[in-house]
């Protein structure tokens, strides 16, 4: 059974009996720390975080309102509750307006009211966190959309313009039609590759996760078969190794296929043509808890500077890059969607190695 998160509460009051009474009454319901002064509270806040902070209004040196007003500038996340014995409505209004207080509790507290107020404050805390998460996600999506529209329009039009130009040249240069057909085919394949990446991006980012049990080794071999038409793939030796005793695993098959396909495609594109033999090795180990996959090549490799940027949308490693700049971004996105981990090591002139770990998901 999943453990329920305990609400973390800091209670500040200059009367020790109030702190002891509060702790005794609410220690079972909440995770409580207490402070006898604002100074002590600040020391606690240096190394701890809280969902809710409760402060007495009348304390020496600094009132609860003054403390909340200053601390809200440092950390606006905790929900603030003021506790006071005052009946002065003006002080309460000031506390709410200046200290951005969620609610106030009047001493002596009514039975059950404090606990209810803390729980309401916690719900507000969670709602704010969720709203912030959605805002950050929306900002990220908008930023990616801007890049996507700009880069996609360029990468879609470039092969089309190339095909149109080559078609016109073929009409004028009679007798060399085969040469132009081969060049047109190359541009068409580039366009097709980019469209496939767009489809994979949609499948990875937008479609829900549908776990199913499948044969991992069979999936890897099927992926190899899908990339055999890539330029240069016929000259590559593909090696698959099962490092364990199990072939079966449960996760979203489509997303895992996209991950393996994009990495292998990348390995083919950036093979070292001067080497006697190009090799791509896929090693995997599957069990009931996770699958770990290592994909290594002996290609041209990457510099440290490239490694830091390779998973950025539409990043291309220099003007000679043959890819669309979206493949590795899709890999990272798909791994994250499956709650997995992704790593890469590489050395120029030696090759690259990708490591993927995906936890099992039940259907």
Tally of contiguous helical segments: 10
Q: What profile does the largest beta sheet have?
A: 5 strands, parallel
pLDDT average, as an integer? 83
Strand ordering within the main sheet: 2-1-3-4-5
Write down the overall geometry.
elongated
Compressed to H and E, one letter per element, the order equals: EHEHEHEHEHHEHEEHEEHHEE
Detail the poorly predicted runs: none
The radius of gyration is: 30 Å
Strand content: 15-25%
Which class of secondary structure composition applies to the elements? Answer: alpha/beta
Helix content: 40-55%
Give a written overview of the molecule:
There is one protein chain. Helix content is 48%, strand content 21%. It has helices spanning 16-26, 38-47, 64-74, 89-98, 113-172, 177-205, 216-226, 253-269, 304-307, 327-337; strands at residues 7-12, 30-35, 52-56, 79-84, 103-106, 211-215, 236-242, 248-252, 278-286, 290-297, 341-347, 351-359. A 5-stranded parallel beta sheet has the order 2-1-3-4-5, with helices on both faces. Helix 6 (177-205) runs parallel beside helix 10 (327-337) and helix 7 (216-226) crosses helix 8. The longest helix is centred in the middle third of the chain and has 60 residues, at 113-172. 28% of the residues are buried.
Features:
48% helix, 10 helices, 363 residues, five-stranded mixed beta sheet, 21% strand
Strand and helix layout:
Elements: E1 7-12, H1 16-26, E2 30-35, H2 38-47, E3 52-56, H3 64-74, E4 79-84, H4 89-98, E5 103-106, H5 113-172, H6 177-205, E6 211-215, H7 216-226, E7 236-242, E8 248-252, H8 253-269, E9 278-286, E10 290-297, H9 304-307, H10 327-337, E11 341-347, E12 351-359
Parallel strand pairs: 1-2, 1-3, 3-4, 4-5, 7-9
Antiparallel strand pairs: 6-8, 9-10, 10-12, 11-12
